[in-house]
Amino acid sequence: MIFTEYFINRKIEALRKASGTRRLRYRALDDTRHILILCDVSDWKAVETCIHTLKAMKKSVHVCVYTPTQDRTRIWDYGYLLVEAKKDIDCWGFPKKYILEQLRHLPADMLLDLTNEDCPALRYLMLRHPAAFKVGAKHVSGRDWYDFSIVLKDGTHDVAFLFRQVLNYLQMIHSGNP
Q1: Are 137 and 166 in contact (CB under 8 A)?
Q2: Taking the complete model, does pTM exceed 0.85, yes or no?
Q3: Tens digits of per-residue pLDDT, 68-78?
C-alpha cells in the first residue's frame, strides 16, 4: 500500500531537472542494438506487437513491465523485468533497490517509454536508467522527460500509434528525408 506519491513525485522532479545536464547522444535506429521498453501490463497486447517488430529488425529487446496486481501477471522469459506494485514498490511509492539494480543492468542504447502518465514508479526507473537516449510521449500538458519525444493530445494513450511514430521519425531522421 502506498501512503502518498508526494515524495516520489518530488524525487522525479529533481531527477528530471538533473537529467537536463546530461550529454545527449542521439542514436539512429540503424545504430541501435539494445532497446529497453517500459510499459504497463494493461498495454501488453500492443507492446507485444512492438517487441516482435523490433526483434524482426534484429534488435535486442528487454522489457520492464509494471503490474498493479498479481492477478494480471503472466509468466515472462529472461528478457522481462516485472515490477509488481504490492511486492516491488515500497509504501512511499519508490521501487525497491533490487528492482533498480536489475533495471540498471539491462543494456540499452535506447530506452523507449510506452507508459502513460499514471505510473510514477516507472517514471522514476526511467530517469534512473543510464541509457544515453530516451524516447517517449510528451503530452501537451506534461513535462519534457525525454531526449526525443512525440507530442500526444491530452488524455490520449495509444501505444501502437506512439510506437509507429517513433519508428517513423527515427528512420526519417537517419535517412535524411525531410
Answers
A1: no
A2: yes
A3: 876 665 656 55
